[in-house]
Structure formats: C-alpha cells, structure tokens
Design goal:
The chain is an alpha+beta fold. It is built from 6 helices and 16 strands. Helix content is 47%, strand content 15%.
C-alpha cells in the first residue's frame, strides 16, 4: 500500500516536470518568434526609409541641377551684358538687360511650375506603387507604414515648399546681383570714358601749348600818358611774347611795333593792342600825351612834381617816402613819424585836397590813370608793397606814381567827424578797386602805426609870374 502511494507521487512529480519543460519551450519559442518578427519589421522599416530617402534625393536632384543651370545661365547672361555694356550706350544697355531679365523671369516661372507639377505626379505614383505592394502585409504593419508615409509626405510637401521658396529667393538674389553688376559695369564704363576723355584732353593740352596758356596779353606804354615837360620816346612792352600794333588817333591804319621807341613831341593820343600766338587779344587801349615846355618844371626840387591848383600850385613827391624810384617805400609809421620825416627834409605832409588833386589831375579822374579801374595797372592785387615806380603805367596826369595802391598815405587833414583822427588817402596792395583818388579812410589814430600805410611829402611852390606870360605847350 505504501509502495503504491510512492509510485503515484513520483508519477505526478514527473508529469509536473514535463509540463514545466513544455511551458519553458513554448516561452522560448514565443520569444524567438517575437524577436524574428521585430527584426523583420525593423529591416522592412529600414528598407522603406532607404527607399524614401532615394525618392527624396530623386525629387530634390532636379532642383539642385536646375539651380546650377540657372546660375550658369545667369552667369552667361551677365557676361553678355558686360560685353554689351562696354559697346552700347548706358540707356540701351539698361533697356536691353531689363528686357532679357524679364523674359528670363517668365521662362523661369514656367519651368518651375512644370517641375512642381511633375514632382507632384511622381509623388502620387510612388505612393500608389507603395500601396500596391502592401497587400501581403498584415493590418498592423500596413497601418504603421501608412503613418510613416503620411509623415514622409508631409515632410516632402514641406521640403518642396522650402525648395521652391529657396529657388525664389535665389532668383531674386540673382536678379539683384545682375542689376548690381549692370550698374557697376555702367559706372565703370562711365569712369573709363571720363578717364579716356581726361587723358585725351591732357594729351591734347600737352600737344597744344595754347590749351595750357591762360595768360592774356597786356601791353605797357613806358613812359605812360599824361603831362610831360620834354619829348618822350615811348616803348611798348608786353607781359608775354606777342605781336603789338599801334597807331595815333588820326591814323586809320595799325602798324606792327618792331621794338623801336615811338617818339612823341606834341599832344597826341597813342592807341595800341596785341595778339599772342594762340590768338588771344588785348583790346585796344590808349594813352593821351600832353606837353608843357614852360619854366614851371624847374620851380620844384628834384623828384617833385609841380601841380597847378585853383588856390595856388604846390610841389609833391613823385614817389612814396623815401621818394626814390626802385626802392620799396617805408610803411608801418605813425602820423607823427611821417610828419617829422617830411619836416626833416624841409617839406610837410600833404593835405587831403592836395593829395586827391595831384592824383585826379585837371580831368578829375576816378583813378590815378583814368576813369575806369584796371587790375594790371597798379599794385592793388598783391600781398606786399612793391618797389616805387615798378608799374610804369601807375602814374597820373602829373608825373606822380603809386597813388592808387601799393601803400595808403597819411595826410595832415583832420576829419570833421572826429578831431582825434587823421585822414589816410588812397588804396594799398590788396585794396582792389577801392583805390580811387577820393577814397578816404578816417579810422586812423595819429599815434598808431599800420602795416599798409606810408606817406609822401608836399612843399609850397614859389610864387609864379602871370600865366599869360608863360609858354604852355607846343602843338
């Protein structure tokens, strides 16, 4: 009885062990089946991803190739535009380039639309082909693959739109670059033309000396016109090589001046003009010569000129102090220094009326030399005072020099407006047209010294016999 129970217990124990082994085997089998299915799913998914990547590359490749082609086309167009811009006018270049770019934009837009339509068709066919191949797959795998395709389709749509946006931006940038290059070429062409014209003008100037010559001819008569007390021999001098012509007032024909002084011994007007090798002309100018051979010229000391005046004649220095031709006159002196200098040599300072009377002469000219201002006649456009008498035509009717320009001059006249001042007459080296015979400068204190102010002296003339007994002029 006991052995039977033992056998029954052993049998049950063996049966349990067998079932445990069978369960363990089933678990191992299920694990291997699951692992196999998972591996198969992963391999299929990888294959699908690879296939999709290839499809994406095939889809994007035409865009990349098309972008390269567009860039090549634009580069060719840019080269052609450069060639055209160098040969055609700026306005035609711009018009031609804009027309070409407009046509290219239209063609580019059509090509992009066609390519986009082709890509959409290809994407639809690929999806249909993939769905046809899904017949052998179970429902769970089909659903998983469809989700992957939808995600990929969404990405493809986004990639297509992104590529299209990039291509549009690339086209805009290329157009902008083409316009910038065209503008740069036009500017370069303009600069080259301007440079060529400048070089041509420079070469023309080098080959043509007249193009560089801006100096107008000017002729000086030495001695100048006015009152003379002896026969004069007038020499005509120019500031540059030129031909000089002259004639007298009653002569109708011009004569070429050959360098021989022109003798004048009676009242006459001398006309003269000039033309240089470049054809520049000096308009005819004239100087009137008058003569007085009476004894009046002998009553004044050396280098002083007798001036007839309604209240009685007087003598005045021909030049500014120290009254020597060829010497730079003294400036930066006070009124008191000027007065003492004249007193030291037995003279006195001139009054304002005496000074302006000697300057304007009997014809009451505005300037020492005549009615109108002449920039080349006296020292009125300079930086310093020049030597006395260096401008031969800067003399008046009387033989006095430099009363228009060079240095303004102290006079002994006290202005009525302010008794503490003294009148200063005339212009100086930089006064320009403000150098008339009646120009008065009032704001000068006698104790002060001024750089552009000098002086000349006057002297009372001895009493003269009746003018009817004097012999004036020899006609």
């Amino acid at each position: 009885m006991g052995s039977t129970d033992n056998r029954s217990a052993d049998k049950k124990k063996r049966s349990r062990i067998i079932w445990l082994l069978i369960a363990l085997a089933l678990l191992l089998l299920l694990f291997f089946v699951y692992w196999g299915v998972k591996k198969s799913s992963e391999s299929k998914k990888a294959a699908v991803d690879d296939h999709h990547s290839l499809l994406l590359q095939e889809i994007t490749a035409p865009y990349v190739l098309d972008s390269t082609a567009i860039l090549d086309s634009l580069n060719v167009l840019d080269s052609l535009n450069r060639l055209d811009s160098l040969n055609l006018l700026d306005s035609l270049n711009r018009l031609d380039s804009l027309n070409r770019l407009h046509n290219l934009n239209r063609l580019d837009s059509l090509n992009r639309l066609n390519r986009l339509d082709s890509l959409n068709r290809l994407d639809s066919l690929n999806r249909l082909e993939i769905l046809n191949r899904l017949g052998s797959l179970n429902r769970q795998e089909v659903q998983s693959l469809l989700d992957s395709l939808n995600s990929l389709g969404h990405l493809s749509s986004l990639d297509s739109l992104t590529l299209l946006d990039l291509m549009n931006r690339l086209g805009s940038l290329n157009r902008l670059d083409s316009l910038n290059r065209l503008d740069s070429l036009n500017r370069l062409d303009s600069l080259r033309r301007l440079d060529s014209l400048s070089r041509l003008d420079s070469l023309s100037r080098l080959n043509d000396p007249c193009a560089l010559d801006t100096l107008m001819p000017w002729v000086y008569a030495d001695p100048s016109g006015g009152l003379h007390r002896k026969v004069v021999n007038v020499k005509l001098t120019s500031n540059k090589p030129c031909k000089i012509y002259f004639r007298f007032e009653k002569d109708g024909k011009w004569k070429e001046y050959d360098g021989t002084p022109v003798e004048i011994m009676k009242n006459a007007a001398l006309y003269y003009k000039a033309v240089d090798v470049c054809g520049k002309e000096m308009k005819p100018r004239s100087k009137r010569y008058e003569f007085d051979f009476s004894d009046e010229s002998k009553i004044c000391p050396a280098r002083m000129e007798y001036v007839a005046a309604p209240g009685g004649g007087f003598c005045i220095d021909q030049y500014q102090w120290p009254n020597r031709k060829g010497v730079t006159p003294v400036s930066f002196v006070s009124f008191f220094q000027a007065m003492d200098s004249c007193f030291y040599v037995g003279k006195r300072l001139c009054t304002s009326d005496e000074w302006s009377g000697a300057c304007a002469g009997p014809h009451n000219w505005n300037y020492l030399y005549g009615e109108s201002y002449e920039a080349n006649t006296c020292v009125t456009h300079d930086t310093i005072a020049r030597q006395a008498g260096s401008r031969v035509e800067c003399r008046g009717y009387y033989e006095v020099f430099d009363m228009s320009g060079n240095l303004a001059e102290w006079t002994s006249t006290v202005p009525a407006r302010d008794r503490s001042l003294r009148n200063v007459m005339g212009g100086f080296w930089a006064s320009g047209s403000q150098s008339r015979c009646n120009d008065v400068r009032y704001s000068y204190f006698p104790q002060n010294r001024h750089n552009p102010v000098g002086f000349r002296c006057c002297k009372d003339a001895p009493a003269q016999p009746d003018d009817s007994k004097s012999k004036r002029g020899r006609r």
